């Protein structure tokens, strides 16, 4: 029995630095709290929770250009001449402030005032003799900015073609699309079959 106890004591002495022994010479496991924990390095994925790469800020969306407000565009008119009893003018909508930009879409307003005080409103049509674009084309949205105006064509027919006397026009008024900013221009048209077409670039 003494030899058995000596052997156990020797074994305990050999492994004492590794596992430790109890008074009864029975080996015991080292408590887990005595083992230092190893933390994952910063930025490294941990088990069950993969790391994610940092993401940058999303790109800002393009700021839409607003519709032209009253006072943002200047209006001028240029004669197109006459052909087959048709007369036409080109209306030009230019940006008033070169540092700004705005959009126009649709039909301008066009009104002729005669010497008798009669006001004649232009009919809105997609195309005509002076503007033979396909009538099925959608109305474009035109960005009006420095060096890039919007334009629209207005036209009429000499009243003599219909056997009517021609009234004298004393004032031609133009209003940009979707606006109340009416301007007076120098050009005039006949008062019969008066038409206005949508703005284009």
Write up what this structure looks like.
This protein is mainly beta and 201 residues long. The chain has two domains: 2-30, no CATH class; 73-196, Immunoglobulin-like. Helices cover 7% and strands 32% of the residues. The chain contains one helix and eleven strands, in the order αβββββββββββ. The chain has one helix at residues 2-15, and strands at residues 73-83, 86-95, 101-105, 109-114, 119-121, 123-124, 141-145, 150-157, 169-175, 183-185, 192-196. It has a five-stranded mixed beta sheet with strand order 1-2-8-11-6, with no helix packed on it. The longest helix is centred in the first third of the chain and has 14 residues, at 2-15. It is globular and about 55 Å long.
What percentage of residues falls in helices of 4 or more residues?
under 10%
Q: State Rg.
A: 44 Å
What is the fold named in CATH at topology level of the largest domain? Immunoglobulin-like
> In percent terms, what proportion of residues is strand?
25-35%
Judged by helices, strands and strand pairing, the structural class is: mainly beta
Secondary structure: number of strands? 11
Distance between the termini: 112 Å
Main sheet record: 5 strands, mixed
Inertia-based shape: globular
Please report the number of helical segments: 1
Number of domains: 2
Q: SSE order, as H and E?
A: HEEEEEEEEEEE
């Amino acid at each position: 029995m003494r030899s058995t106890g000596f052997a156990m004591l020797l074994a305990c002495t050999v492994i004492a630095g590794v596992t430790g022994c109890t008074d009864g010479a029975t080996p015991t496991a080292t408590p887990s709290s005595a083992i230092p924990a190893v933390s994952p390095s910063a930025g490294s994925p941990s088990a069950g929770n993969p790391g994610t790469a940092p993401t940058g800020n999303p790109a800002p969306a393009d700021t839409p250009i607003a519709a032209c407000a009253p006072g943002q565009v200047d209006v001028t008119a240029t004669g197109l001449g006459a052909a087959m009893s048709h007369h036409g003018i080109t209306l030009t909508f230019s940006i008033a402030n070169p540092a700004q930009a705005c959009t126009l879409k649709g039909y301008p307003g066009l009104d002729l005032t005669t010497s008798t005080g009669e006001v004649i409103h232009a009919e809105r049509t997609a195309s005509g003799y002076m503007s033979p674009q396909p009538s099925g084309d959608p109305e474009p949205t035109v960005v009006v900015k420095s060096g890039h105006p919007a334009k629209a064509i207005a036209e009429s027919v000499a009243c003599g073609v219909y056997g009517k006397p021609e009234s004298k026009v004393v004032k031609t008024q133009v209003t940009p699309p979707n606006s109340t900013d009416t301007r007076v221009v120098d050009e005039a048209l006949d008062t019969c079959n008066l038409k206005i077409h949508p703005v284009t670039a």
